[in-house]
Amino acid sequence: MLAITLPCLMTSCIKDEAANKECDIESAWVEGEAYAQYFYDAAEMRKEYISSTQTEITFTVRSLISLSKEIPLNLKLTPGATVTPANGSMQDFTAGPVTYTVTSEDGQWQRTYRVIFVEPAMPMSKLSFENVEVRIPANKNGNSYHHFYEIDASGTRRDIWDSGNLGALMLRTNANPEELPTYSTSDGYSGKAVCLNTQSTGNLGAMFGKPIAAGNLFLGKFDMNKAFSETLKTTQFGIEFDREPFRVTGYYKYAPGPTFTDMNQKTVEGRVDEADIYAVFYRNRDAEGNPYYLYGDDVDSEEKLKANPQVYKIARVASLPPTDQWTRFEMFFEGRDADDELVKNLGFNLALVFSSSKRGAYFEGAVGSTLYVDEVEVSFEK
C-alpha cells in the first residue's frame, strides 16, 4: 500500500490540508481586444472552475498559423501559490503545449499543468462516452463528479460535453459521482455509457424553489455563475460544427420514477415522467455579427425553437418508451438548409441534449427517473 501511496503524494496536492499546501490553477484566461481576434468569441478566452484533478487546460482558437507567438496567459492560483512560467508572461502556444508548474506557499508541493491552444476539430460522428474523469470542484467541500470528454482523430482532448452536476453539488455534501444526476456506468451497450437520473435536491433545494435535479448531458457549457440568479441561463447549448447534420442515432434504456411532481412538489396524478433527446442546428452569429447561443429558456418548447430565426434545423426523438433493454433510437433533422460557406467557416452550432426528465429545467418530473444513453452517432449531409 505504501508503494502506491507515495507516488500519488509526489504528483498531486493533499486537498484536505491547510491553504498554504495547495497548488492549484483555479481559472485561466486571456484578456484584451488585441487577443480577442484569435478567438471565435469572448467565452472561449476564459476557463473557469478548473477541477483540482485536471492537468490539461485547452483553449480553442481560430487558427494556429495566424496566432500570435506572444500570448499572455493569466492564472488564478490557490492562495499563496506561485507558478512558473510567471503568471501573465508571454508564451508561444503555436509550437505545442506549454507546461506550467504551480508550487504551494510552503514550497513543499507542486502540480504541473499542460496548457494547449488548438484549432476547432472536425466534428466527431461517433460519441460513445468512454472518456470520463473524476473532478473535484475548487471549493473542496468533499464532493466529486464525473466529467465526460472526447478524443478526436488527432489524439487531442475535446471538452465538448457538460452537465448540471456542478450545480447539483451546491446542494450536496460529500457526494460521490454515482450519487449525482449524471455519471458514467460500465453497463453500456458497448463499454461505458452515461447514466442520467432525476434526484431530489432535499430541503435546501426546495428552499430555493428547485426541488429536483434532472440528469442531463449536452454539447456546450454549464455556467455556474447563473445557478441561482438565472437558472435557465446556466445551460449554454451547442458547439461549432462544420458540417450539416441530418440524423442522430443511438441506444437507450429508460425507467420513469414512480411519482410525478410539479415545481411546488405537488403530486400530479396520472402523469408519467418522460425522458428527452433532441438536437438543434443553429446560426451562432446574430444579424450584427455578435456571438449567439441557445440557452435553457430558448429550447423549452418546439414552437419557440421554430419561431427563432437563428434556428435552422431541429431533431427530437418522438417517444422513449420505458425499457430495461438497450433499444435503438433515431431522429432526423427537419428545417431549412444552411449556406455551405457559412457551415464550412464554423458559422453554425450543433446542440445535442439528453435528459432524464423532459420538464426537468422547470423542476418538474419524477424522482428516480433514469435514462441510459450509449453509442450515439451523428450523420451529416455532406
Descriptive account of the structure:
The chain has 382 residues and is mostly beta strands. Helix content is 9%, strand content 37%. It is built from six helices and 32 strands. The protein has helices at 2-11, 33-36, 165-169, 202-207, 302-307, 340-344, and strands spanning 25-29, 46-47, 56-60, 71-72, 74-77, 82-84, 90-91, 98-103, 110-118, 126-127, 132-135, 145-148, 150-151, 157-158, 161-162, 182-185, 193-197, 199-200, 212-213, 216-222, 235-237, 239-241, 245-255, 260-261, 276-283, 294-295, 311-316, 323-332, 334-335, 348-355, 365-366, 370-380. Strands 15, 20, 21, 22, 25, 26, 27, 29 and 30 form a nine-stranded antiparallel beta sheet that branches. Strands 10, 16, 17, 23, 28 and 32 form a six-stranded antiparallel beta sheet that branches. Strand 8 and strand 9 (110-118) form a beta hairpin. It is globular. The model is unreliable at 1-14 (pLDDT under 50).
